[in-house]
Amino acid sequence: MKLACAVWLAAVALAQTPPEVKPAAVEGKVVSSLTGEPIRKAELTLTTSLMPDDAGVGFDLAALGDDFKLPEQPPKPKEPKKTYAATSDASGKFRFEGVDAGAYYLKVKRAGFVEQTYKPAGALAPDGRLHLTAGQELADIALRLVPQGAVSGKVVDEDGDPIGDAMVIAMKPSYASGHRSLFPGDGSQTNDRGEFRLGKLAPGRYYLVAQAVAPMNFMGGVPPPPKDGSPETGYVSTYFPRYLDVEEAEAIDVAAGADLPGFVIHLQKSRVVRVKGTALGADGKPLKQAQVMLMAGANAGSMRMASTDAAGKFEIANVAPGVYTAMTMQIFGASGGSPSITMQTLVVPGEGLSDVNLGSVPEASLPGRVTVGDGGKVALKGIVINLEGDGAQMMPLSARADDSGAFVLKKVAPASYDLKVIGVPAGAYVKSVLWNGREKLGEACDFSAGVGGDLQVILGTEGAAFDAKVMRDDKPVEDAAVVLLPEDAGHRNSETARSASTDGVGHVAFQDVRPGNYLVFAWEKIDYGDWFDPALLKAAANSAVKVTITARDKQHVDLKAIPAAK
Question: What global pTM score does this model have?
Answer without folding.
Answer: 0.78
